[in-house]
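To the wet lab folks,

You asked to see what we're planning to order before we commit. Fair enough. Below is the target structure as tokens, and below that is the sequence we designed to fit it. If anything looks off to you, flag it before the synthesis order goes out.
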């Protein structure tokens, strides 16, 4: 265009600026800004709004704000862009100042439209939700002149991620026009918060309302089925997925299908899905390894991990946790230790307390209690309650009274209010016919006001 002598204008430059945002082309974007100034179109509200978004994406919040302040005119896009720049930079206070400035201009009659700038309201609410300030988000939500399904979805999603499904459900029911994204937010919340029955019931209700689910909803439903472990329900969902127009080549969808079938007992179907995938990623491998492990096929799980390595995939901390758990379940001590050493010495991953807990459980189940004890003491991170708890359980299993006393003492220091540690030690004493020590321990619990939670077992 420039070679033909045509000057760029307020219509031709914004798409180029947006392309720079998408491709993270900082130098090119600044060059386009130079063209904007050179051609005298910096007063265009559309061009200015695009540049604000560009500088925000590049992390140049100061330049974005300078542009915003210099704009002779602002519209919904410019106000919203500046708010988003601040929220993406974790500067919620500054974002709220811009939002309040927008409202103040409306009140002073400078521009009567900001009351209708719903995108700016939603951007501010989403910013609060993103960083967990649900109190401020809810307050602003209640003040909205007009609430739409997007604002309801943001709040339902936020409450779901915080574990408050009562508030999430309440707002869901308040929304008059529900779309697939709102249903997805609620189902995901139920699934992620260990309420699989509610997730399945909402899915059935959604179908009754003739709302077609997308892949995100089906992943939540499959996660709920995995938690329930009901084979017939899993078969129905599997059949529903095959009969619908879902993308069964999407690794996240297939991973959820594999995980659901494996955890519900249909390992053959899970393996068939896994083997038919032309490309397999870490998520898919971990789902299959977990499924094999859950059904006593630890050796196959180990073989699959080696296959994953041979395909050039690099395991992350989650993958190592999955394979260590598999080894622990099946008592594969040598393999588990080999993987632990692989993680420590040949990868850039620093073993977490969860990894150490897996190894302690593995050693403990096989009777190598002293090795487990030494491993905990070698931890470079702070000693983990889970690791000591696993070892205390192993001491009970193998009637290791002396070591059990030492481990229990460590646990009592770490969590003095946990009655379970006292109960486990009491059971160890009972197995060794040390009834006097059982009585002393029970008296200590009474003196400290510790009670056993009904329905819980530490045996």
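Sequence we intend to order:
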């Amino acid at each position: 265009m420039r070679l033909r002598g045509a000057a760029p204008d307020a219509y031709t430059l914004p798409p180029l600026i947006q392309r720079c945002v998408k491709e993270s082309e900082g130098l090119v974007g600044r060059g386009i800004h130079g063209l904007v100034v050179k051609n005298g179109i910096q007063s265009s509200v559309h061009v200015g709004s695009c540049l604000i978004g560009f500088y925000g994406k590049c992390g140049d919040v100061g330049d974005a704000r300078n542009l915003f302040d210099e704009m002779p005119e602002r519209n919904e896009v410019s106000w919203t862009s500046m708010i988003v720049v601040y929220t993406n930079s974790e500067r919620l206070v500054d974002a709220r100042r811009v939002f309040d400035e927008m409202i103040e201009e409306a009140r002073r009659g400078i521009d009567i439209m900001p009351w209708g700038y719903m995108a700016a309201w939603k951007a501010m609410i989403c910013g609060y939700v993103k960083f967990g300030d649900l109190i401020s988000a809810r307050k602003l939500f209640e003040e909205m002149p007009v609430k739409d399904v997007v604002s309801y979805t943001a709040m339902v999603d936020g409450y779901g991620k915080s574990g408050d499904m009562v508030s999430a459900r309440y707002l869901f029911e308040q929304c008059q026009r529900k779309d697939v994204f709102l249903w997805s937010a609620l189902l995901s919340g139920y699934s992620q918060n260990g309420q699989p029955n509610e997730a399945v019931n909402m899915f059935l209700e959604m179908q009754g309302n003739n709302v077609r689910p997308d892949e995100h909803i089906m992943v939540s439903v499959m996660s709920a089925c995995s938690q329930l472990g009901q084979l017939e329900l899993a078969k129905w969902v599997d059949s529903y997925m095959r009969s619908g127009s879902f993308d069964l080549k999407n690794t996240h969808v297939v991973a959820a299908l594999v995980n659901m079938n494996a955890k519900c007992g249909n390992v053959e179907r899970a393996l068939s899905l896994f083997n038919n995938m032309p490309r397999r990623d870490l998520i898919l491998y971990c789902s299959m390894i977990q499924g094999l492990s859950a059904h006593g096929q630890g050796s196959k799980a180990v073989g699959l991990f080696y296959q994953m390595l041979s395909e050039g995939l690099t395991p992350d901390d989650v993958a190592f946790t999955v394979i260590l758990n598999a080894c622990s379940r099946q008592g594969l001590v040598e393999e588990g230790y080999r993987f632990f050493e692989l993680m420590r010495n040949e990868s850039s991953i620093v073993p977490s307390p969860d990894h150490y807990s897996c190894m302690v459980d593995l050693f403990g189940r096989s009777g190598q209690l002293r090795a487990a004890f030494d491993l905990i003491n070698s931890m470079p991170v702070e000693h983990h309650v889970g690791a000591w708890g696993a070892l205390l359980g192993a001491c009970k299993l193998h009637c290791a009274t002396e070591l059990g006393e030492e481990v229990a003492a460590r646990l009592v220091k770490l969590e003095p209010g946990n009655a379970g540690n006292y109960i486990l030690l009491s059971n160890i004493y009972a197995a060794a016919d040390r009834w006097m020590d059982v009585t002393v321990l029970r008296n200590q619990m009474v003196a400290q006001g510790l009670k056993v939670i009904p329905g819980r077992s530490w045996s």
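Structural context that might help your review: Residues 37 and 73 are 16 Å apart (CA to CA). Residues 92-107 form the longest helix (16 residues).

Thanks,
Computational group
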